[in-house]
Amino acid sequence: MRRGRYSFAALVRHALSGHRRWPPAWRRREPKRAYDVVIVGGGGHGLATAYYLAAEHGVRDVAVVEKGWIGGGNTGRNTTIIRSNYLHPESIALYDHALRLWPTLSLELDFNIMFSDRGVMMLAHDLHDERILKRHIHANRLLGVDNRWLSPAEAKAFCPPLNIDPRARYPVLGAALQERGGVARHDAVAWGYARAADRLGVHILEGIEVKAIRRRGDRVLGVETDRGVIAAGRIGVVVAGHSSVVLGTAGLRLPIESFPLQALVSEPVKPVFPCVVMSNRVHAYISQSDKGELVIGAGTDQYVSYSQRGGIQVIRHNLEAILELFPIFARLRLMRQWAGIVDVTPDRSPIIGPTPIRGLYVNAGWGTGGFKATPGSGHLFAWTLAHEEPHPIVAPFGLDRFESGRLIDESAAAAVAH
Amino acid sequence: MLEIPCPFCGPRPEVEFRCGGEADIRRPADPDRCSDRAWTDYLWNRTNPKGVHRERWWHVHGCRRWFVVSRHTVSDTILAVSDSGQTAQPQETAADG
Question: What ipTM score was computed for the predicted complex, to two decimals?
Answer without folding.
Answer: 0.91
